[in-house]
Amino acid sequence: MPRTEPPPPPSSPLAGTLPDGGPTADARPSGGTFAPFKYPAFRAIWIANLASNLGATMQSVGAAWLMTDLTTSHQLVALVQASATMPIMLFGVFAGAIADNHDRREIMLASQVGMLVAAAVLAALTWAGMMTPALLLSLTLALGIGTALNAPAWQASVRQQVGLADVPQAVALNTISLNLARTVGPALGGMLISLWNVGLAFGINAISRPPMIAVLLRWKPGTTAPKRQPMLPAIAAGLRFCAGSMPIRRILLRGGVMGFGLAGYQALVPSVVRGPLHGSEIDYGLLLGLFGIGSIAAALGIGWARRRLSSETIITLATLAFVVAQLVLANAHSLAAAAPATFIAGAGWVTGLTTINVSMQMRSPEAILGRCLSIYQAVTFGGMAIGAWVWGALADWRGLDFSLQCAAVFLLISLGLLRMVAPMPPGESHSIA
């Protein structure tokens, strides 16, 4: 059912044309790649989010590289990635219920403040020379918990920022924000780490949070307060819907399996740069920057692809891109040889995960949207966390090249099986309940 809202009060600086940032009755979504930017709320949040994404990517580079200084264990290096994603699997479903039962803006505010504190502590301990592998994993885990709390509320709030017709492009633009940061952040982070120390990257992550906090304090969505339910029954309602919907079950299965397979690349790149490539922190940052460039290129073209290709075809192409990337990286012995793999991996990452995300967004009812998105994230990022641990342990046992090759083979076999037993649901053009 379409909603009708009263006009916004003049004092709502980021309200846009409606309190929820949606279009007025006579506004027509253009459907173009950059159409969501016409909504003031989306535009302001997107810019602030770009700043926080930039800080987060620099922190991620710093944490992974610092762990290679603290230990020679490939598994502990891989656990840096796992500790950032594991909270989404463990707490994501609860975060989704919180997002549906409380003001999403307030949840985003609380999580941003929490991540600010964790990042500041991480920077202070690193500057003081007190960092250990256990402390690094603990504080990375704390930042992951903030991400787990923030993500369902943030993704569900997209419908409060733009019109329904522009939701797919808003999701794609949010992905571009992340990958713009992934393009600039790693290279800049690697340079700053080499010139100063890892603590500077952590400090920049801390000071990147206040702009988002300021924007959220000014944003007045104007939506009615959600009808609150007890936590466990609310979670059960989301789980029942997802379990009872065949299309949703397929989407979740594809997300979890893809996340498990992709994790091999994400988790082992720091060890590959430090080991076979004999690279520096700058080389690591440059490779991650190429990952971001590939991601942006794919994000800009994903709208065109979705209009012409099925979700199944897009995910197949994305998976094959990662298969190629992992095989190339496994056999690379120079930065030049690894660079194409990084670009291809970035394109495959965005193409695959954005397609799955949009499918989940467009098939989830508004009343339980936060829970549905949190379940999707718990499954997908849980797959990544488990995958990072598995591929890291395998690398310690048999070597980096063997682990990356196994991850590529896993993706290839699982793709063939899932195309037969769990094909992606066709289209998302139907109305949302």
Describe this entry's structure for a reader:
With 433 residues, this protein is mainly alpha-helical. The chain has one domain: MFS general substrate transporter like domains (Growth Hormone, Chain: A). The protein has 15 helices and no strands. It has helices spanning 40-70, 74-101, 104-127, 133-156, 158-161, 167-195, 198-207, 209-218, 231-244, 246-274, 281-308, 311-330, 335-362, 369-398, 400-421. The model is unreliable at 1-30 and 428-433 (pLDDT under 50).
List keywords for this structure.
433 residues; Growth Hormone, Chain: A; disordered N terminus; single chain
Uncertain stretches: 1-30, 428-433
CATH topology: Growth Hormone, Chain: A
The major sheet is characterized as: none
Tally of separate helices: 15
Distance between the first and last residues' Cα: 7 Å
